Amino acid sequence: MTADQTPVLSCRNVSKRFGALAAVANLSFDVRPGEVLGIGGPNGAGKTTLFEVISGLSPASDGTVVLDGENITRLSPHAICHRGIARLFQLNASFDGLSMLENVMVGAYFGKANRLLPGLRIDAASRRRTRDLLGLVGLADRADLPMRLASVLERKLIMLAGALATEPKVLLMDEPVGGLTPSEIDRVAEVVRKLPSLGVTVLLIEHVMRFLTQLSDRVLIMHHGERLFEGPPDRLAHDPAVVSVYLGIDAAAALKQTGDSGRVAHE
Asked: ABC transporter domain: which residues (predicted)?
């Protein structure tokens, strides 16, 4: 990040404690506009808890979270969403009684501002945004399909489209390709690659290393709630602490040998 570039998201000395356990411990980092920051680490490292803090579902015990110059640390989740942070969860949540189009339209209509007195009809702008996003994720021809008939991949893509419908500045993606085949992972990756050009900054938690390293401009590896590594993806396999704690010798050796971290998956 250049000296004159203001970060779109900053975490400063953020901690989240549950009794004596610090799930996130004094963590600080900045994310620049249009960046894809990959976040990895062993199970229990504090990755999802960090997302809970940023999105307001579990506010920080200490420290501050700043979005585009505004301190959002104590705002409610819906207020943070309206300020410009959207989140994808690990579980595939949807309204199965609605169509794919209607699921995305919910995000377009309710995700940008409070609707104290919702209208009887969805406005034209929300409808246009929904159609555009279905095209972006490659599901325009499936718009009227009931969600109960959607495949796992389609559910993930509809969740992504619904999050984008809120017009976020920052998108938090928590293990978005879990349970997908390699070809399905590639399809999600194609969509994620387009997001920075649309003005969306991405924070990405993922254990599938080929997905994480292909897409990330920078990687943050967490362990016991702290930063273990932060740097370019091609340095992961050369960091002894990352190899010992997370990658393992075999995966690290494969990364070095191929020179293409996109071919290695670490579960």
From this structure: 9-249
